[in-house]
């Protein structure tokens, strides 16, 4: 039995992870679960999977949850709660499915405690990739990608020599506004932005897909996960999300990983790696699809992707700031406080104000993240 804990068990990745687990219940034991505010769902998960530790966002929610959970489950809350679930159980693998850079400290704590990481929470690697990868190497723990593109690259690289990589290409669906002009983006609604063409995901990542910030975060995530330079990472628009990403080798061979868009496949691969198990997911039949399309990335159409490359190449605290400014801008957009195009303006203005600090330690990362959040919150609406 593999012992697993999940941060963000009530979200899109968290619930799909539990779905994977429930299709092979003999193979897993759930040690810890952490959610934020959805204690109704978390309570159901606790009663079904019987974790030893569970965490919620606030003390008040923890008190309410305690009434509802079996005697063998301890309930925690806040940042301490996330740390308990991340590092304070016997789990050998932690699935990090929180949204945002709040995942950083619990991820570091889990690695410090020797737990392998099933990594969905990409903001953590973007914010502090050098700290996370260095600690993982020191503690000899694996960072197993769950993000579909990175799982694809990971699978394509299985057994390959890293020196034989020419480059990798991440595919981008184009998000909810892929067929709209920049002029049309001026008046788009939150409701429309939340309609991703291929994937059903949490609100924040769905907006990130529409702005192409998601691909920008993924470029930085790939840089850290696979140790590649930014010149070796490309992005192509692929509206169908069937080819999840591919690697080109020095001999001109390209290996791609394909499948229908279903996150349970990369989630399960991270849980069972290096094995593969049967999944309840549907099989891809290329003859049914008929055609696949690819088109050149237009950096002028998607300036948030250009800014991600710029922040990654700059390094130090610049990716931390890119990510934190975006998190605040997306929250403001979702609340109806700013327009869709203001997201990119806020990121650009916050980055322009920031003097990047090289080789930041954790305190510097935390301070830069807080500075960028405050700067992004203060920028005018239009
Ligand atoms: N969804 C997807 O298909 C993919 C997601 N990812 C990445 O995975 C991560 C999770 O995404 P997704 O599942 O879509 O996001 P969701 O918004 O669906 O889920 C976020 C989770 O974080 C929890 N959470 C939020 N705030 C807090 C808090 N203050 N304390 C504790 N828990 C909190 C939520 O709890 P609650 O709801 O109870 O408040 C929920 O469980 C992101 O980094 C995303 O980029 C990567 C690839 C694909
Ligand atoms: C499922 C997944 O991994 C998401 O990150 C997905 O890639 C979003 O799609 P796009 O960013 O390509 O629109
Ligand atoms: Mn992805």
Automatic annotation (TrEMBL):
A single MF term (Gene Ontology): NADPH binding
Q: Where are the transmembrane segments?
A: none
Residues annotated as binding NADPH: 10-13, 36, 38, 121, 123, 202
Q: Which GO terms describe its biological process?
A: isopentenyl diphosphate biosynthetic process, methylerythritol 4-phosphate pathway involved in terpenoid biosynthetic process
Q: Which residues form the DXP reductoisomerase C-terminal domain?
A: 258-374
* Residues engaged in binding Mn(2+): 147, 149, 218
Required co-factor(s) are: Mg(2+); Mn(2+)
What pathway does the annotation place this protein in?
Isoprenoid biosynthesis; isopentenyl diphosphate biosynthesis via DXP pathway; isopentenyl diphosphate from 1-deoxy-D-xylulose 5-phosphate: step 1/6
Per its record, the protein catalyses:
2-C-methyl-D-erythritol 4-phosphate + NADP(+) = 1-deoxy-D-xylulose 5-phosphate + NADPH + H(+)
Task: Please list the residue ranges annotated as the 1-deoxy-D-xylulose 5-phosphate reductoisomerase N-terminal domain.
Answer: 4-129
Kindly state which keywords UniProt assigns to this record, in alphabetical order. Isomerase, Isoprene biosynthesis, Magnesium, Manganese, Metal-binding, NADP, Oxidoreductase
Residues holding 1-deoxy-D-xylulose 5-phosphate: 122, 148-149, 173, 196, 209, 214-215, 218
Q: What EC number(s) would the UniProt record show?
A: 1.1.1.267
Occurrences of domain 1-deoxy-D-xylulose 5-phosphate reductoisomerase C-terminal (ranges): 143-226
Read off the NCBIfam families from this record: Dxr, PRK12464.1
User: What HAMAP family does its record include?
Assistant: DXP_reductoisom
Chain's role: Catalyzes the NADPH-dependent rearrangement and reduction of 1-deoxy-D-xylulose-5-phosphate (DXP) to 2-C-methyl-D-erythritol 4-phosphate (MEP).
Return the similarity comment: Belongs to the DXR family.
Name of the featured protein: 1-deoxy-D-xylulose 5-phosphate reductoisomerase
Organism lineage reads as: Bacteria, Bacillati, Bacillota, Bacilli, Bacillales
Q: Which gene encodes it?
A: dxr
